[in-house]
From TrEMBL, chain A:
InterPro entries: FAD/NAD-bd_sf, FAD/NAD-binding_dom, Sulphide_quinone_reductase, TAT_signal, TAT_signal_bac_arc. This is NAD(P)/FAD-dependent oxidoreductase. Keywords: Signal. SUPFAM superfamilies: FAD/NAD(P)-binding domain (SSF51905). It comes from Billgrantia sulfidoxydans. Residues 44-160 form the FAD/NAD(P)-binding domain. Pfam families: Pyr_redox_2, TAT_signal.
From TrEMBL, chain B:
It comes from the Bacteria. The chain crosses the membrane at residues 6-31, 43-67, 73-100. Keywords: Membrane, Transmembrane, Transmembrane helix. This is DUF5368 family protein.
């Protein structure tokens, strides 16, 4: 097992320089809560995944718990700022801007296990690692994000991204970069048809496929030959976005910008050589939801109606689910809308519905919205408080309201700050009284372009 | 959000521009210091040229601030957008004035200060 033990919790040199330079006054450091009282415990806590959620929890718990043995299972050396991928694929950012070494964020005192988790034995509180070894836990936080199921589209594989006119911002940072190249090549061609797709499952950053359409439209308009390009958007359900106001707005804007919308179609197969895509009509009952029954119906091959169409560029959004190792564990939802597909947690307390020592955070959880880093920011303090209460045998004090946020890019240079939660038909939950979520704005774009990445890193450090 | 949270965000946001911030501050301090050593007093010296040049530098922000943010002036739309942009123009103009005003004193010499 390759692992690295850090020194016990102390301000390291990097943190010292940062806060020393930034604060400049002891008063600021004091008021920051840096010295928050820690709870003594000998518990073994395992965090699966060191992305946005796992890293935020590692930092928060290492500060709040004294003596706990915390292990972070994360194979990657490089941390990827995924919200930057849309900007990379749109040609606005360089890919390097989205990467930082994971070692910058892993707190001292944590046992960082650089491996994949391969299985979970929830009944015996054990995690199986890639090399066959086992890790025992008293408390488990599942934060391994979600799995991209490209294989559910016949003929499709993430390796194809960047060739044969195929793009997919989700594939990886390399995929996002190759998506940019594929869009460049399409625009350089001077005309042709572009198809933008959505998935029949919940996806991370549900706005990303729409953002890719809008930024590409900006680029087509800037080419001066917009009318030579055909743009189509294929949606598996009635809606394009969960939040009702934004859904109507996007539909109207697509109509105004000459985007042909087709509803109730999912991408079922692709023939890269022939540049042809097959779409399956999934019926007007289909919704942009996660219902397991619906997924079964959509992926079944009986009684389907198909449309095959050519393209010059296609943006592929794969179906998504919890990772396979989790799906084959007892932690997966066993009934309800997330059955067989997502982690079975109470969407308010984030505690597992059957194993109270297990919590979930981030993309992996079964919840109707929420697959964003912005949600992780809202969820992390909830998991922290509730896990600590559970550890002390107290009732869980905090509830997550489903907060999620999407800077909906409506063109290169402008965006809308869409923030909403579970309640009141996904009503807006604006953070800033001076920014109207219904307005397209330059400041919102500047926030997306310049401020959200710093805020994201503050979340990783457990500071925001 | 805690103060360390705000500091963390600021630290990450400013890090890529640290060289620019440091260069600007060094330039500003050097020019101010040199001019003060030669008798420059901020309110005791008048230079219409420096004032106009500072306003012009501020106004160039209408072009480069949107460009610097990968956007364009046409997308500055909401009331808050305009408040933010005008604030940035003001800040640029004041910064330019704090450099150009003493610089003009240094270039024109003490004789001009009584003009
Ligand atoms: C194109 C795109 C655009 C986005 N735009 C936005 C946006 O504008 N705003 C926003 O808030 N969010 C956005 N997001 C979503 C955001 O990035 C995710 O919601 C967030 O990263 C979720 O955090 P997580 O910890 O659940 O998963 P991740 O950050 O994906 O981390 C999961 C981690 O688990 C590790 N892992 C996986 N499997 C295993 C295993 N078996 N064992 C151990 N470790 C494992 C991985 O290496 C990874 O580090 C976007 C995402 C994408 C892809």
């Amino acid at each position: 097992m390759s692992e690295q033990d850090h020194e016990p919790s102390r301000l390291n040199r990097r943190q010292f320089l940062k806060y020393g330079a930034g604060a400049g006054a002891a008063g600021l450091l004091y008021s920051s809560g840096l010295q928050a009282r820690a709870l003594a415990t000998k518990s073994r806590i395992v965090i699966l995944g060191g992305g946005a959620g796992g890293m935020a929890m590692a930092n928060r718990l290492s500060r709040r718990l004294d003596g706990a043995r915390i292990s972070l299972v994360e194979p990657r050396e490089v941390h990827h700022y995924q919200p930057g991928w849309t900007l990379v694929a749109s040609g606005v950012w360089n890919p390097e801007k989205t990467m930082r070494p994971n070692s910058r964020f892993v707190p001292n005192g944590i046992n960082w296990i650089r491996q994949l988790a391969a299985g979970i034995d929830a009944a015996n509180r054990k995690v199986e690692l890639e090399d066959g070894s086992q890790l025992d836990y008293d408390y488990l936080i599942v934060a391994t994000g979600l799995q991209l199921n490209y294989q559910l589209i016949d003929g499709m594989s993430p390796d194809l991204v960047g060739s044969h006119g195929i793009g997919s911002v989700y594939a990886s940072i390399e995929g996002a970069t190759r998506t940019r190249d594929a869009i460049d090549a399409w625009i350089a061609q001077g005309s042709g048809k572009g198809i933008f797709t959505a998935a029949p499952t919940p996806v991370k950053c549900a706005g990303a496929p729409l953002k890719m359409t809008f930024t590409t439209l900006s680029r087509l308009e800037a080419s001066g030959r917009r009318e030579a390009f055909q743009v189509e958007y294929m949606a598996p359900g009635d809606a394009l976005f969960t939040q009702p106001y934004i859904n109507d707005f996007v539909k109207q804007r697509f109509d105004d910008q000459g985007v042909t919308r087709r509803h109730h179609y999912r991408l079922s197969a692709i023939d890269p050589q022939a540049r042809k895509a097959e779409f399956t009509f999934v019926g007007p009952d289909s919704e942009f939801t996660s219902h397991h029954e619906l997924r079964e119906a959509e992926f079944s091959r009986e009684g389907e109606r198909k449309v095959v169409t050519g393209y010059d560029f296609i943006h592929v959004v794969p179906p998504m689910s919890a990772p396979d190792y989790l799906k084959s564990s007892d932690l997966i939802a066993q009934d309800g809308p997330f059955r067989g597909e997502w982690l079975d947690v109470d969407m308010h307390t984030l505690q597992h519905n059957r194993y109270p020592e297990v919590f979930g955070i981030g993309d992996v959880i079964g919840a109707p919205i929420n697959k964003t880093a912005a949600s992780v920011k809202a969820q992390a303090p909830v998991v922290e408080a509730n896990l600590i209460a559970q550890l002390q045998g107290q009732t869980l004090p905090r509830r997550h309201n489903g907060y999620t946020s999407c800077p909906m890019i409506t063109g290169i240079g402008k965006a809308m700050l869409v923030e909403f939660g579970y309640d009141n038909d996904f009503a807006f939950l604006p953070s800033f009284p001076f920014i109207d979520p219904r307005d397209e704005s330059w400041v919102t774009w500047v926030m997306k372009d310049r401020m959200l990445q710093p805020a994201y890193y503050a979340v990783l450090e457990g500071r925001a | 959000m805690t103060m360390t949270g705000i500091l963390t965000i600021l630290m990450y946001a400013l890090a890529p521009f640290l060289w620019l911030i440091v260069t600007s501050v060094v330039l500003l301090l050097t020019v101010q210091l040199l001019a003060h050593l030669r008798g420059y007093r901020i309110l005791g010296y008048r230079c219409l040229g420096a004032n106009l040049a500072a306003i012009a530098v501020g106004l160039t922000g209408l072009w480069w601030i949107p460009l610097f943010t990968h956007s364009r002036l046409a997308y500055v739309a909401s009331v808050f957008d305009w408040i933010a942009l005008i604030g940035a123009l003001f800040a640029t103009a004041i910064l330019a004035w704090l450099v150009l005003h003493p610089l003009s004193f240094l270039l024109r010499g003490k004789s001009a200060s009584s003009a």
